[in-house]
Amino acid sequence: MTDLRTTVVVITHNRRPELLRTLDRLAELPEKPPVIVTDNASTDGTAAAVARHHPDVRLLRPGRNLGAVGRNLAVRQVRTPYVAFCDDDSWWAPGSLSGAADLLDGHPAVGSVTARILVEPEGTEDPIVRELRDSPVPHPDWLPGPALGSFLAAATVLRTDAFRAAGGFHPRLWLGGEEELLAADLAANGWWLTYADDLTIHHHPSTVRDSTLRRAHGIRNTLWFTWLRRPAGPALRRTLHLARTVPRDTASLRAFAEATAALPWVLRERRVLPPEVEARLRSLEPAQRDSKARSYTG
């Protein structure tokens, strides 16, 4: 069942055991996809371990922690029409990469497909799955699944050329909600984003993570995206909603301070989305306000 339409890209930083488990699972896939790993300056022997245990994996070592931009670096090396992302603590289920490639082959206007996420070791659905499945974004009848306003990088297959044309992940956002800006730019370029319930990725959350820093970056990046792409009215509403709902703590204050300090470059790069794409995002606002999975309160 070898299927070389899709390359898998993984970024990692100081999570050697998790990464090796992920690479073991990817090596077992019937599709036998090419795999590229960007090691974001790990200091725990990650690079040596990958070279020793998975010599067929292409290993990139930029020498510093690039965050999500490490994916951009890897995509430059991709020679397949599709690229699948997963994190170092997640892996694709057998057959799902071929299923995603079939979907993209059959629907030329679909730019990305996001899979169902099962949280291990229990194998339960991630809470975000219900929101993806029930997405309220209006879509044409031919779309093979629900239309999405954004995607989850750890569970998505994209067209390689569409990713490159949209510019990949913005270098300033680093990690934490970095997908929202790229997703909007893909949509502005004419692509549809969809969810496929019959595709699966497994996520075994690593305990090696700074959840407070990730939350601060998530708030900051949401604010940056909002003012980079949304019209003034929706941008102001979303900003005020965040200000009312995030915890009054150091992480939130840091996020708002960093977002405010960046106003000069944000205004320079501001490019409001086309009306049809903005309409899709507005359709998501009620669900975003009520979402527990997407909240910044934890």
Polypeptide structure, described:
This protein has twelve helices and nine strands. The model has no long low-confidence stretch (mean pLDDT 95). Helix 1 runs parallel beside helix 2 (46-53), helix 8 (211-229) packs antiparallel against helix 9 (232-245) and helix 8 (211-229) runs parallel beside helix 10 (250-261). The protein is α/β, with parallel strands linked by helices. Strands 1, 2, 3, 4, 5, 6, 7, 8 and 9 form a nine-stranded mixed sheet that branches. The longest helix has 19 residues, at 211-229. 43% of the residues lie in helices and 17% in strands.
What is the alpha-carbon Rg in Å? 18 Å
The low-pLDDT segments are none
Could you say which overall geometry the principal axes of the C-alpha atoms support? globular
The end-to-end distance, rounded to whole angstroms, is 42 Å
Mean pLDDT: 95
Q: Which percent band covers the strand fraction? A: 15-25%
Task: Estimate percent helicity.
Answer: 40-55%
The total count of strands amounts to 9
Oligomer: single chain
